[in-house]
Amino acid sequence: MGEIKRLVPLTEAQKLIDVLKARYYYERGAEEIDVFEGINRELYEDIVSANRSPPHDFASYDGYAMKAGDCDSYPLKIVHSIYAGDEKSKLPVLKRGEAMAIATGAFLPEGADTVLRLEDARVENDLLYGIPITPGTKVVKAGSNFEKGDVILKRGQRLRPQDIGILHEMGVTKIKVFRKIRVAVFSTGDEIHKGLLRDSNGPVTMAFLKEWGCEPVFIGTVPDDLELTKEKFIEGTANYDAVITSGGVSVGDRDYVLKAILDLGTLLMHKVKTRPGKPLAIGIINDKPVFGLPGKPTGAFIAAELNLRRYFYGPNPRATVKSKISEDINLSTKDTDSPDIANIVFVLRQNGMVFPMGFKDSPMKLISSGGLYNVSTIASSLRAAIADGYVIVDRNIKKGEIVEVNLF
């Protein structure tokens, strides 16, 4: 994939993720499962309709089946009643000058092309009086859901509840899906390996992967040791579809994840223009993608949210809402940061306003109103991410300004 990309904009990092996904993500087998087990699974092949749906025109409203051309001939003689569940082949043919009472969901009889609503009808002695209506009024046309041979769901599509419903409607009971992608996760650092600090990056990564429909396996921790780090990468890439680790991705003497990727395979990208979450590494080892998340918990969280989510779950953006912000966001930048870096501001929502984490109206009271918003200080604790969402900003924001919130 060319030379190593360094300190790239978020959009460029995501393009690299897309290329990586096209090459590796679907390199796994299929399995056949019951439709009811298909939620959040990815289809291995297109789903094509074997029949049309609905098979016949049916009424979408209680009323009277009739010919629209008979509107000039009221009253019409009511000759029959049709209910949902009555077989089409057993219905009498509607003749000119006639109407049939019909229930919602019932098939229209041959000869009928419209339905007069009950509210628009008047009946006297089995004679129907009504208003002018056009053909197709209150009628669901045959084949309007799908025709025979239509592609209803596509290969690679992740199944939602409504997809499960339409599969049942189509009479599909078994589907072929990609097997769940298996991901090895390990954490690095003496402080984690020795138990001096509790590891939150491993559990967060595992939880993300479960949410994305993957099958994560935690393969342990390693101290700050190059050979042991390489052994974990070898173990992970030998037995799983991808590997994710955290820590050791900066350029210090003891940042061994980068060194391990370079020794064992190919480093594709190092650092993305986000704060937190900048020191992200992406590479290939043993023809398997490997991801090195930042060591800071909130950095690892954001790197997973903005980048790994795209690989394992797809380019499915978070729902967003526009809200007024309650504080000025005066960004604090470093000389090493590019001016177009994306700063992540975690926010709480209440009464149409958003309240940035770190100020007096949030659980983390670290910044005075009007003070510099130091992203690295806020991001030092995963507590910052216990929020309703986040705003991505690349400039100073004024109190009361409308911002776009990505909702968790």
Describe the protein:
This protein folds into 4 domains: about 5-30 and about 180-310, MoaB/Mog-like domain (Molybdenum Cofactor Biosythetic Enzyme, Chain A, 3-Layer(aba) Sandwich); about 40-55 and about 145-180, Alpha-Beta Complex (Molybdopterin biosynthesis moea protein, domain 2); about 60-140, Molybdopterin biosynthesis moeA protein, domain 3; about 320-405, MoeA, C-terminal, domain IV (Beta-clip, Beta Barrel). With about 400 residues, the protein is α/β, with parallel strands linked by helices. A hairpin with a 2-residue loop joins strand 23 (about 340-350) and strand 24 (about 355). Helix 4 (about 200-210) packs parallel to helix 7. The chain is about 20% helix and about 30% strand. It is elongated, with a radius of gyration of 30 Å. Strands 1-17-19-20-16-14-15 form a 7-stranded mixed beta sheet, with helices on both faces. It has a 6-stranded mixed beta sheet with strand order 8-5-7-6-10-9, with no helix packed on it. The mean pLDDT is about 95. The relative contact order is 0.12. It has helices at about 10-25, 160-170, 190-195, 200-210, 225-240, 255-265, 295-310, 375-380; strands spanning about 5-10, 30-35, 45-50, 60, 65, 75-80, 100, 115, 120-125, 125-130, 140, 150-155, 175-180, 180-190, 215-220, 240-245, 265-270, 275, 280-285, 290-295, 320-325, 330, 340-350, 355, 370-375, 390-395, 400-405. The protein has 8 helices and 27 strands.
